[in-house]
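Q: I'm writing a short methods note and want an example of a predicted protein-small molecule complex. Could you take the sequence and the SMILES for 2-acetamido-2-deoxy-beta-D-glucopyranose and return the bound structure as tokens? Please keep the output block clean; save any remarks for afterwards.
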Amino acid sequence: MWIRFVVFSFWLVLCVQGLDRASLRRSSDSSGRCQYSFIVDSPMESSCPGTSSSVETENLNARLTLLEVVVSRILDARPVTKADIKTSEMENMKTLLQDKKQLDRQIQKLQRQVQELTDERDKLREKPCPLVQTEPTNSFGIITGKDPGNNGAYQEMKAEVSEIPVPSKVPVLFKGQENAQNNAGCGELISVGEPITHQKANSITGRYGVWFQDPESPGAPYGPSTVWRIDAVGKDVRELFAYENLEQLSRGYPLKVLLLPEPMESTGATVYRGSLYYQRQRSPMLLRYDLTDESIVAQAPLPQAGFHGQYPYSWGGYTDIDLVVDEKGLWAIYSTEKARGAIVVSQLDPESLKVTRSWETNIQKNKVANAFMVCGRLYTVASYSTNSTNINFTFDTASGQSKAVDLPFRNHYGYNSMIDYNAARRMLYAWDNFHMVTYDVKLGKTSSSQ
Ligand SMILES: *[C@@H]1O[C@H](CO)[C@@H](O)[C@H](O)[C@H]1NC(C)=O
Ligand SMILES: *[C@@H]1O[C@H](CO)[C@@H](O)[C@H](O)[C@H]1NC(C)=O
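A: Understood, no commentary inside the block.
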């Protein structure tokens, strides 16, 4: 732009001088400077001023040099013009504005996502805890009526959470020993010891639960000392915790958490020969879950069995179907319409879960706190909440005879939701108001039914 202006000026100057043609040539001189030369045609040789007019030539030369300097200065260090600044600024502004718009859009998107996640979190938080006590029967099916063993007092939320020191040493007996013992004396239950606390659940899902050890060798990777635990409060109970042994349970370090493919109902589950046996939620279907394969390997409905609150134990909790194991194998304790709520005991084939034999007793299932089997005999506990209660009834499947007994039994924490016998360890396993406890038991001499 500048060069053109300069050239134009020269051309003008030359025209004014009456010259009709002129040409401009640019070249570098020996010192590296830019040199401009003008060649001017003249109609007459004489018109070109001779040496005599050297003053004029020198004048022109001087002006040319001056212009040269200006031009070279312009070329070397062309200053940034205001217009240039404006253009680049505008360009920058444009890109910045575009970037800003894009970022704004991203921010909005992120804000929407944050809102969605917050909503989701709030929704999850609002999900009702299963222990809401405004209804006579809550979502866990707890009968909030009278406790027969406690003068009709309302027992639902008498949460006694006093700490009991974990015993430093827990008797651990192994299978070899046990079999010898079992063979030596399968007999009547003669006494139950004081409860020994092993662990306390630390969340509300553990107010009720079920825990056990396999009385017979489970499959690898589990051993005879593996402890299994299920916190049973909730709408979708599926988590099965495995602990290496009782000590690890006490310390609260699980070995593994298995996720059951079908949700579990109640606290009636048990473990036997490497399988977890349990009742499917809202169904009389019994499931056998292989602990090694981590899959359901057998299922069968328990014929005519009441479920989901029809014939529970006195504390409720949908404890209609209780699966237990003793020296003689796998049993189901439940009731049917035909039995009109009286306890029915059925022996199950541990492979197929089919009923092999059934007995009907004359004790109402909803009148007792819990029941378990020892050596083919059914025992029932009178109260789930009274501190000092008793085992007051037994039914012998070998003879079909029932009788009243009176064996003291302590509900140390005042809300016993599960009591099962372990034949290999000669212990009762119980879940009493967040606490996992065991009771040693003594059996009498071989009874007539053996
Ligand atoms: C055992 O206790 C329960 C609950 O208190 C009671 O209903 C039942 O009649 C008692 N059974 C016997 C045989 O005493
Ligand atoms: C039951 O009795 C024992 C021994 O007296 C006591 O330590 C415990 O706190 C009592 N439990 C309840 C729930 O009252």
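A: Remarks, as requested: The first helix runs from residue 2 to 16. The domain at 175-446 is CATH 2.40.128.630 (Lipocalin).
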